[in-house]
Design a protein that fits this description.
283 residues, Rossmann fold, 2 domains, five-stranded parallel beta sheet, 12 helices, globular
């Protein structure tokens, strides 16, 4: 090979390296900053908006109703049974969904869609990690870190306020019919503690469980927090009338506040906890 050929070969290799570098850079940016996102859970949706995304969110579930912009996105079904065809038709470059034993991620990946599976958070620190994880996936790490910092500050402020209460009331949380409630392993148990209460089933290791009326009565809560019933359903029932919470009408029913702000694993959680603490202090 003469000097001219060697020079051309060197220039060619350099050109290939530059093209490869640009390709990798573009691919990296595309992966870090998706332009079309589908969220298959209200909590993920609220986090995505909370870290500054908006037009990038093209599809959400029927239950994704906050913030207002989420109502205007294409609805792809419910959390457990999303419409695969609708999701594919939206041409997303990233889909966020729960890490459950289901076929949705596999079906979407089979047509080349990037799917991010996220486990349910068991603790409030897990929720912070979830926000950071989503932020990193969409190229919004700094915004996610700032959001988590604000949430931690507000949680600390609420803790300081409720720590001065003269008496921590015991509370029974009813999530759904059949006496579904929360145990000590649920992040909801932490929420009660932050808001100035003690979960009557905090000693139970399951995060969620069904309990008997007898077990509720034996623990005789000061308060009832119900996400699924009206106050009158308790006060008019002979079985519930034996409880101090019902006798004293210390019941926060399904209409007492926006429970989604409390239970959804996202940014609004801290506002929900603050409202819950304020309501409890007034009972």
């Amino acid at each position: 090979m003469n000097r001219h050929d060697a020079k051309n070969a060197k220039a060619g290799k350099l050109k290939v390296k530059r093209i490869l570098f640009l390709f990798l850079l573009i691919a990296s940016l595309a992966q870090a900053e998706p332009r079309r996102i589908v969220s298959i859970a209200p909590g993920f949706t609220e986090i995505l908006y909370g870290i500054g995304l908006d037009q990038e969110i093209v599809g959400t579930t029927n239950y994704c109703d906050y913030p207002e912009q989420a109502k205007r996105t294409t609805k792809i079904g419910d959390v457990l049974n999303p419409n695969i065809e609708k999701i594919i038709a939206l041409h997303p470059d990233m889909v966020f969904c729960g890490a459950w034993k289901w076929q949705v991620p596999e079906k979407l990946r089979s047509v080349g869609i990037q799917v991010v599976e996220i486990k349910d958070a068991e603790t409030i620190p897990d929720i912070y990690k979830r926000i950071m994880f989503i932020g990193e996936k969409v190229g919004k790490r700094d915004a996610a870190a700032a959001l988590v910092s604000r949430m931690k500050s507000k949680i600390q402020m609420i803790r300081e306020k409720t720590s001065g209460l003269p008496h921590r009331r015991t509370a029974y949380v009813e999530l759904d019919v059949g006496n579904w409630t929360v145990g000590g392993a649920s992040y909801m148990n932490e929420i009660l503690e932050i808001a100035g209460m003690t979960n009557i089933f905090a000693d139970r290791k399951d995060p969620y469980m069904m309990v008997t009326m007898e077990s509720i009565a034996s623990r005789n809560p000061d308060l009832i927090l119900s996400l699924n019933r009206k106050k009158q359903e308790y006060t008019s029932s002979a079985a519930w009338q034996t409880l101090d919470a019902v006798k004293n009408e210390r019941i926060l029913d399904k209409d007492a506040l926006d429970w989604n702000a409390v239970v959804r694993q996202g940014p609004r959680m801290v506002d929900g906890i603050e409202e819950l603490a304020n309501l409890v202090s007034g009972l």
